[in-house]
Amino acid sequence: MSRIVVGLSGGVDSAVTAWLLKQQGHEVVGVFMKNWEADDLEDDCPIAQDFRDVLAIGEVLGIEVRAVNFSREYQERVFAYFLAEYRAGRTPNPDVLCNAEIKFKAFLDHALSLGADHLATGHYARLKGATPQRRLLKAVDGNKDQSYFLCRLNQAQIARALFPLGDLPKPQVRELARQAHIPVAEKKDSTGICFIGERPFREFLQRYLPTQPGNMVTPEGRVMGRHQGLMYHTLGQRKGLGIGGVKDAEEGEPWFAAGKNLERNELIVVQGHDHPLLLSTLLTADQTSWIGPPPRAGARYGAKTRYRQQDAACVVEIITDHELVLRFEQPQWAVTPGQSVVLYEGEACLGGAVITGSQGRL
Q: Cβ distance 184 to 10 under 8 Å?
């Protein structure tokens, strides 16, 4: 029997994780992480309700429940990076960094200080083998697989990690929660970035970054409208541009954000989903992080440039301690600087890097 700390969020996935481990005979301690000081935004970031749900879960399961505050660590290690990336015109993925820096670093250290042998979470992923060759695998439920968000973990971190839901489809998880009379069995899954909550993204960013309006222009330089700030737009964005039906535009083709000129504070917009500026066959990335041995130059892998994307066949052209260059067999749509590119070899997640740029057919 092991002593296992389970990160309880107040949702059904982490609750069933705790239930499964207790059913297996382990000593389970539930710990609720507070990563954001909601101050006057309690209605938008329902931390208090989530903690009440955690207490109710603990009572039903008969396990000890604690709380820990990592708001300072989150501000320093995740949110500061989040803002810096938006200032630089990129679109970061804070969930990837949160897993590496908070859940499986600060929280893992806390779990070990409580005498835990392992830290378990409700992530949909699988682990196989032993260190130093332990592998992170995709979940059985392809619709819920979260290995993408775990791509920056290392061998020391996954050596202590447990993901009990990796072999279960989501409908079965909810059914187990019902059978165990877990009070959050029907609770809606949380979506989006946790610290933003339900409020509009633009409204949230305005609290921290000044707006810098500029022009929306075509690649040829024709002004099509105005934007309120490059930080509010990401490559491939269609909604929110406000330039539909412009005179002389090609009728019936929607507009998309396809690039940013930081020096001129211009948003490059194009017409048509398959415009050449939205398609890339070459990708560059930095901040490489590998779970095990790094990929091999010249080898063929699958890659995701965004969550839920199908693995895209690619070849590693350049790989160093800090740089990764991939060439895709088929053009990839809206490859976005700041997002993570994650490499796979079959079911195994090898790790990833942060996208810095892309090019079309060469």
A: yes
Domain count for the chain: 3
Cβ pair 214, 266 in contact under 8 A = yes
What tokens appear for 320 in the block? 């160093």
How many helices (DSSP H) and strands (DSSP E) are in the chain? Answer: 9, 17
Q: Is the pLDDT of residue 236 over 50?
A: yes
Rg (CA), the chain: 22
Peptide bond into 132 cis (omega under 30): yes
State residue 356's pLDDT score: 97
Domain that holds residue 264: 212-273
Whether 187 maps to a domain, the answer reads no
| Per-residue pLDDT tens digits for 53-100 | 999 999 999 999 999 999 999 999 999 999 999 999 999 999 999 999
What pLDDT is attached to residue 251? 61
Is-catalytic flag, 98? yes
Catalytic residue among 98, 151, 314, 349: 98
Q: Helix, strand, or coil here: 164?
A: helix
* Final residue in a domain of this structure, among 273, 300, 324: 273
Per-residue pLDDT tens digits for 253-305: 899 999 999 999 999 999 999 999 999 999 999 999 999 999 999 999 999 99
Pairing of strands 27-34, 3-7: parallel
Q: Which helix (H) or strand (E) holds 244?
A: none
The CATH number of whichever domain residue 295 belongs to comes to: 2.40.30.10
At which of 220, 238, 273 does a domain end?
273
Residue 185: inside a domain, yes or no?
Answer: no
